[in-house]
């Protein structure tokens, strides 16, 4: 089993594998073009988004600069909005639902590392998918950690560190993110 196949299956893999390095280089070239189009027409940026992402719904906005590992594991629902400076480490699938609004500087991190020091010393890692539902609002500077699911209509407060799943309609804040008092 190749390293990319292991990565996509959520198994331990080596990120400096030549196939993955080539994929990362393609993504870096794509990001350079995309991030250089800050003043381009929306339809031109949309065309480039379709080229670099796994799937892109109608009316999606991703404000540059934007950074990711590969792009092909990112799936954006209709009218999703990512503000300036978002980072998506997409070694596993990332789904962002329709109408979701993501503030500036948000980090969505599927990459994880073994807890055993000997495995980390071998530069092994793995990924856990992230699913963000529809009509979610994630405030600026929030961190979404590997394996998290955020339900439809949820709110994540600015600067929050989301370490656990967030239910539909829930509001979480803080580090680690906890349910906000109503």
Automatic annotation (TrEMBL):
Family annotation (Gene3D superfamilies): Hexapeptide repeat proteins (2.160.10.10)
InterPro entries: Hexapep, Hexapep_transf_CS, Hexapeptide_acetyltransf, Mac_dom, Trimer_LpxA-like_sf
Organism: Sphingomonas gellani
Alphabetical UniProt keywords: Acyltransferase, Nodulation, Repeat, Transferase
Protein name in the entry: Nodulation protein L
Homology family: Belongs to the transferase hexapeptide repeat family.
Limits of the Maltose/galactoside acetyltransferase domain: 4-58
Top-rank lineage group of the source organism: Bacteria
Keyword Transit peptide among record annotations: no
Any Pfam family hit: Hexapep
Signal peptide interval: none
GO cellular component entries: cytosol
Functional description taken from the UniProt entry: Acetyltransferase implicated in the O-acetylation of Nod factors.
Keyword Nuclease found: no
Recorded GO MF terms: acetyltransferase activity; O-acyltransferase activity
């Amino acid at each position: 089993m190749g390293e990319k196949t292991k990565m996509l299956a959520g198994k331990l893999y080596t990120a400096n594998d030549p196939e993955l390095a080539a994929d990362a280089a393609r993504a870096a070239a794509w990001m350079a073009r995309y991030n250089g189009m800050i003043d381009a027409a929306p339809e031109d940026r949309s065309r480039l988004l379709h080229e670099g992402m796994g799937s892109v719904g109608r009316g999606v906005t991703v404000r540059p600069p934007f950074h990711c590992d590969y792009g092909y594991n990112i799936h954006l629902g209709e009218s999703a909005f990512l503000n300036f400076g978002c980072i998506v480490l997409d070694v596993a699938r990332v789904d962002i639902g329709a109408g979701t609004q993501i503030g500036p500087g948000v980090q969505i991190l599927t990459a994880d590392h073994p807890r055993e020091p000997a495995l980390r010393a071998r530069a092994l890692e793995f990924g856990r998918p992230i699913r963000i539902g529809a009509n979610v609002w994630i405030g600026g500077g929030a961190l979404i950690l590997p394996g998290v699911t955020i339900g439809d209509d949820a709110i994540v407060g600015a600067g929050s560190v989301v370490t656990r799943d967030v239910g539909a309609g829930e509001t979480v804040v803080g580090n680690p993110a906890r349910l906000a008092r109503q």
